[in-house]
Write a structure and sequence with these properties.
single chain; 323 residues; alpha/beta; Metallo-beta-lactamase, Chain A; 2 domains; eight-stranded mixed beta sheet; globular
């Protein structure tokens, strides 16, 4: 790992750089730069700070803005796509690759901004994301399921991967046999690594959590027999075939928590407590030795977002049951 002007960058084989996007704390979220055949591509735009950091890293490495061919956002949640407009303004030859269900929100981000403000609140939104810049429609390409892109001899394959979000895709890089997973393959923070490897758990952020779809998407990722997963939260992890059962166990557990308390008046509080207990116990079983206060500090935001997402999912179930 290198530190360049306070920007943390991890370098991996295959010309892949993980750039800390500066979201909330160090090593919470990253964007990727792929250098290949004299050109570059970006996976995840981060928020406005993440986009600024990406542009700084490009400059530090001598990559001309005109040589960036693609900006790929795995889905349009703003920690992944909020900086897309800023990047597209700065990178004149780049094409934005986005899921068909998310493209309209990149062209006109007003509803996306309103929805994100509703989740985070105005103050945190302004601190983190700021004004969203629309992307011209002619520079947006909607990627199809199983679409393949031949980038100067390097094949990138896109698959539809709902479950975390309906507008989510993952990108397979044939050169390194790795997936850029967005949020489909969960969260794995490096502070929680132990001699047992990475600690991994699902993210069920509002508003599209679908446990059945998420399990299916995880299975599709494994079908490619990948060597690596490039997570947005956070960095490259290996041995995905060993991690996937733990991730699915988490999906199962979070789904069960929601169903257990579905009809309780105080279900949000009860799901939050159950999820906190489950994650703390799972981390301890994995060998994490951080003090309780530090472990809670690392997990609290994800717990709050996960619980909110499960609550939305339960409301959706109830509406469907009434139809």
């Amino acid at each position: 790992m290198s530190e360049s002007k306070n920007i943390s960058v991890n370098e991996y084989p295959g010309g892949i750089l993980a750039v800390d996007s500066g979201l909330f704390r160090p090593q919470m979220a990253c964007c990727y730069v792929i250098e290949h055949a004299g050109e570059a591509a970006i996976v995840e735009a981060g928020g406005h700070l993440g986009a600024q950091r990406l542009l700084a890293v490009l400059a530090q490495r001598g990559i001309a803005k005109e040589d960036v061919r693609y900006v790929m956002v795995t889905h349009v949640h703003l920690d992944h796509a909020g900086g897309a407009g800023l990047l597209m303004e700065a990178l004149p030859q780049a094409q934005l690759l986005v899921h068909p269900k998310g493209a309209k929100h990149m062209i006109d981000p007003s509803k996306l901004e309103a929805g994100t403000r509703a989740v985070y609140g105005d103050e945190k939104y302004e601190q983190t994301y700021g004004s969203l810049i629309p992307v011209p429609a002619e520079r947006v390409h909607e990627v199809a399921d199983d679409e393949r892109l031949d980038w100067r001899g390097r094949t990138l394959r896109f698959i539809d991967s709902p479950g975390h979000a309906s507008h989510h895709y993952c990108v397979h890089d044939a050169l390194t046999n790795g997936w850029f997973t967005g949020d489909t393959f969960g969260l794995s923070y490096r502070e929680l690594d132990t001699e047992n490897g990475p600690f991994i758990f699902p993210t069920t952020t509002p508003i599209d959590f679908d446990p059945d779809a998420l399990r299916h998407s995880i299975g599709r990722l494994l079908d490619a027999e990948p060597d690596w997963m490039y997570l947005t939260h956070y960095g490259r992890i290996g041995h995905p075939e060993a991690l996937a059962p733990r991730l699915v166990e988490g999906v199962d557990a979070f789904e069960a928590m929601g169903l257990e308390f579905e009809h309780d008046d105080d279900r949000v509080a009860r799901i939050r407590q159950a999820m906190t207990d489950w994650l703390m116990a799972a981390a301890r079983a994995h060998g994490v030795t951080l003090p309780d206060a530090r472990l809670r500090e690392l997990l609290d935001m994800d717990i709050a977002l996960n619980v909110a997402g499960i609550d939305v999912w339960l409301n959706r179930r109830a509406r469907r049951a009434r139809q």
